[in-house]
Amino acid sequence: MTDTLFFYLSKLAWALLSPGNLIIIIFILGSLLVLMNLRKLAKWLLIPNALLASLLLSYPVGDWVIKPLEQRFSIPAQLPDQIDGIIILGGGEDLKRSLSWNVAELGLGGDRYIAAKKLADIYPFAPVIFSGGSGSIQLQNTGAEGHIAQQVFNDLGLYPSRLILESASRNTYENFRNTQPLLKPDGTYLLVTSAFHMPRSVGIARQKGINVIPYPVDYRSNSRELRQINFDFYDHLKALEAGWREWIGLTVYFFTGKTEHWLPKPASTEQNPASTQTPRPNPFEGL
To answer: Is the separation of the CB atoms in 273 and 99 below 8 Å?
Structure first.
């Protein structure tokens, strides 16, 4: 399977498997069955679908899907003394709004830029390698992702000479395939991406022989004590969509040989946040 065919098939599959799309598609199919006087069959579709939509509306069920991914890797308890660079994966850009208004707009993953700049300040001589192109079928070859990244880092005060841009990648596999020639073969790189996206990213990096230290950001789930009935459908759907998509991605990447393990885990030299890491103090406690 060529990379281009893989890209188009993944987009088509997600259009059908997206939880939000599925709920709407089933409602449409059920309504058509009612119009065709197939009410009994329509009930088998509409009633479970309505119950699922009601549950998603009232409670953050997406947390159960995405939190195991976000807990898989943690921010290092201690950063290394030296690194060869900082890799930030694209995905924090709001491409359509950026193109529409001719400004650099960030979306839910904008935390990636803040974290990358923070690490760049800690390691003032390390290059910052941005890798990310458009994941949209309609918006290919615009080059806007690299321009957005450059503008955001300029605004954050990063010296332009430290920034290396790779903006031809359409998915996570291409991120590492296209970035690998820019890296030292035996180098060590901090990897910045969303926490739920980190397991798949680390798995691909290891498959490519790229030594990365995970630095996850952009958490989407809530702690157990903060999960509550609040009727915020959009907020609940954000976590469910991201988590469900990532589980599908992990499965497809494993069976197509893009990763060696279905759910990559921390290396023996890394701490597992679910078992050995000392709890971090809450900087917001008391506010």
So the answer is: no
Rounded distance between C-alpha atoms, residue 287 and residue 275, angstroms: 28
The answer to whether the CB of 261 falls within 8 A of the CB of 201 is no
Please choose, from the candidates 120, 148, 147, 174, the residue with its C-alpha nearest in 3D space to the C-alpha of residue 10.
174
Handedness of CA 256, 260, 265, 270 (dihedral sign): negative
Please compute the mean of the pLDDT values over residues 216-232 and round it to a whole number.
90
CA angle in degrees (0–180, nearest 5) for 246-247-252: 95
**How far apart (Å, rounded) are the C-alpha atoms in residues 130 and 150?**
9
Average pLDDT, the chain: 88
Instruction: Encode pLDDT of 259-287 as tens digits.
Output: 999 999 998 655 544 433 334 444 444 43
Look up residue 170 and give its two tokens.
Answer: 């359409």
| Domain annotation for the chain: domains and CATH numbers | 3-58 (no CATH), 78-219 (3.40.50.620)
CB 101 within 8 A of CB 90: no
Contacts of 210 (CB under 8 A, 6+ apart): 176, 179, 180, 183, 189
Model confidence over 134-174: pLDDT tens digits? 656 666 666 667 888 899 999 999 999 999 999 888 889 99
Token couple for 196: 């739920």
Tokens 């995405």: give the residue. 66
What are 23-76's pLDDT values in tens digits?
A: 999 999 999 999 999 999 999 999 999 999 999 999 999 999 999 999 999 999
Measure CA 53 to chain center: 24
Backbone angles phi, psi at 181, to 5 degrees: -65, -15
3-state secondary structure of 249: helix
Task: State pTM to two decimals.
Answer: 0.85
Could you identify the residue written with the tokens 């599908």? Answer: 248
CB 176 within 8 A of CB 210: yes
